[in-house]
Write a structure and sequence with these properties.
Elements (H helix, E strand, L loop, with lengths): L29 H5 L9 H12 L15 H28 L6 H9 L1 H34 L6 H18 L1 H29 L4 H5 L22 H11 L18 H28 L4 H5 L5 H10 L1 H35 L18 H22 L5 H33 L12 H21 L4 H20 L9 H7 L10
Length: 511
């Protein structure tokens, strides 16, 4: 079948002709999509695990860097960011079953606002999903270094080995990938529950002594009982990017739409159950982890806060055993977000926004192996550049924080665009069948957009991580130049594009 005709009889713009948005569609035959097929496997349980597993590592490491501004800043920032994610996830829960495409955020923006908006959103999410595993594997390396007592110079070895193993698992097949996701997610949550219960029964929890052991200017107070906001109101805004780490990547679920048996019913259930699980765990970890020694000032500099917490509770020897189990939490997110960047690169490539060879799937496995390998290599390259630029002896919190802020910057722009997509779809596509409707409606999307914009603004004003965020802006400029000069002339009517071109009139089809 020519790409010029959809299953609903809707015709694409003639090959070689530009439409009003200045993009050109290339005609391909059915063999193009035959080489890019996926396999359906996921149900509600798998989708819940995919969402929670993608985020859960943020409850092990990364969030704690926000404690540099005091516990009160971390608490209020978490409340604000949780509100943003409620607005985001409920909006996605409505959009995803209405547009059940692997493209996720890109397809929402493409349908509602055109190819340029789709590409802008796709690049933002690409930055987020390629860099987030890089942050996670950095913390995996930190945990393993703590367990085995290796020197910092060996960190890149851990990164390469982890990427090789989990990219390989994702290539082997979607069924194995989801089985691993469910297993490691349950183990990761179980480890956190063991930690939470251990803190509560240990007799070592003292909120005022440890969580409030920071004074103005970040000075450690030996007896605790310091101010709730040692850095003032401004500390809350500076902490918001780190609070994002407690929830970042839950929005990846729509990328599994074409591998879900019934995305219209299962996707809303999976994403809503996921965000509620994460909110409960997020507040447990910030209160219970910070309420034991070494407290806010100690955890603010840690690259393995859960391991430090286990050391406080059980001593170093037993803590190492528990920390080995705790690495599973980081692995859960690492594995699931590798799945995400593979599908995200695949969808943009299948539609022609990225070079089309990136979307070829494995002949037997039906997994996007080229996209998975490419995303891993890009993530590793960014890590190596930062590692050698800052030096192996640079503080782990600085290196990890640099990568984290780069990922969060991409996420904030993607969230802003998804909120806008929701609003436009509500107005321009009122006829679209919506199996689920968000109870927060347009106001939920607006709230998400405002908080995302404020977070991104304060990232640009942060002197410590400003260079990292500017690096994201430079990458964005390069990718936009690519699309202007080349990419916009190579678009293909993938399911996302066909649905958008027809303004929702074409019957949805997957490959």
């Amino acid at each position: 079948m020519s790409v010029g005709q959809g299953s609903g009889g809707v015709h694409a713009p003639p090959a070689g002709a530009q439409n009003a948005a200045g993009v050109t569609y290339t005609v391909v035959d059915e063999s193009y999509f035959e080489a890019r097929r996926l396999k359906r496997h996921a149900r509600v349980w798998s989708l819940w695990a995919l969402g929670v597993g993608a985020v859960i590592s943020g409850h092990y490491s990364g969030w704690n860097l926000g404690l540099a501004n005091g516990f009160g800043s971390m608490f209020f920032a978490t409340v604000i960011i949780a509100v943003m994610y409620l607005g985001l996830t409920f909006s996605i829960a409505e959009m995803s079953p209405a547009l059940p495409h692997t493209g996720g955020a890109y397809s929402f923006a493409r349908t509602s606002m055109g190819p340029w908006a789709g590409y802008v959103t796709g690049i933002a999410e690409n930055i987020e999903f390629v860099l987030t595993p890089a942050v996670i594997v950095f913390f995996i390396g930190s945990y393993l270094s703590g367990i085995f007592g290796t020197e910092p110079a060996y960190q890149p070895v851990y990164w390469i080995v982890c990427y090789a193993i989990f990219v390989g698992l994702n290539i082997v097949g979607v069924e194995l990938s989801f089985k691993v996701t469910v297993t490691v997610t349950l183990l990761a949550l179980a480890c956190l529950v063991v930690f939470y219960v251990s803190v509560l029964v240990s007799g070592k929890y003292d909120f005022a002594r440890w969580a409030l052991n920071m004074g103005p200017g970040g000075v450690e107070l030996p007896n605790g009982n310091g101010p709730f906001l040692p850095m003032g109101i401004g500390g809350i805004f500076a902490t918001m990017p780190f609070a994002v780490w407690l929830f970042l990547a839950i929005e990846q679920l729509p990328l599994a739409a074409e591998e879900s048996h019934d995305p219209q019913k299962d996707m809303p259930k999976g994403i809503i159950a996921g965000i509620l699980t994460l909110i409960a765990s997020a507040f447990c970890v910030i209160f219970l982890n910070t309420g034991i020694a070494p407290g806010a000032t100690g955890y603010a500099k840690s690259t393995e806060p859960l391991l430090d917490g286990f050391r406080t509770l059980f001593g170093s020897d037993i803590a190492k055993i528990l920390a080995a189990i705790a690495v599973i939490g980081l692995i859960a997110s690492f594995h699931t977000i590798i799945f995400a960047f593979g599908r995200q690169i695949y969808s943009l490539s299948r539609a022609g926004y990225f070079p089309s060879f990136l979307s070829i799937t494995h002949g037997q496995r039906k997994t996007p192996h080229v996209a998975l390998i490419t995303g891993a290599l890009v993530g590793l390259l960014v890590m190596m550049v930062i590692w050698f630029s800052l030096g192996a002896d640079a503080g782990g919190s600085v290196i990890g924080g640099t990568l984290l802020n780069m990922a969060v910057a991409g996420a904030m722009l993607a969230y802003f665009m998804q909120g806008m997509s929701y609003i436009v779809l509500k107005k321009k596509f009122a006829h679209l069948h919506r199996p689920y409707v968000s109870p927060f409606g347009v106001w939920g999307a607006i709230t998400c957009m405002v908080i995302a914009a404020v977070t991104l603004y304060f990232q640009f004003t942060d002197p410590v991580f400003q260079t990292a965020v500017m690096g994201v802006a430079v990458y964005y400029a390069v990718m936009m130049a690519y699309f202007l000069v080349h990419g916009r002339h190579k678009l293909i009517l993938s399911p996302e594009e066909e649905f958008a071109v027809s303004k929702g009139a074409a019957e949805y089809r997957s490959y």
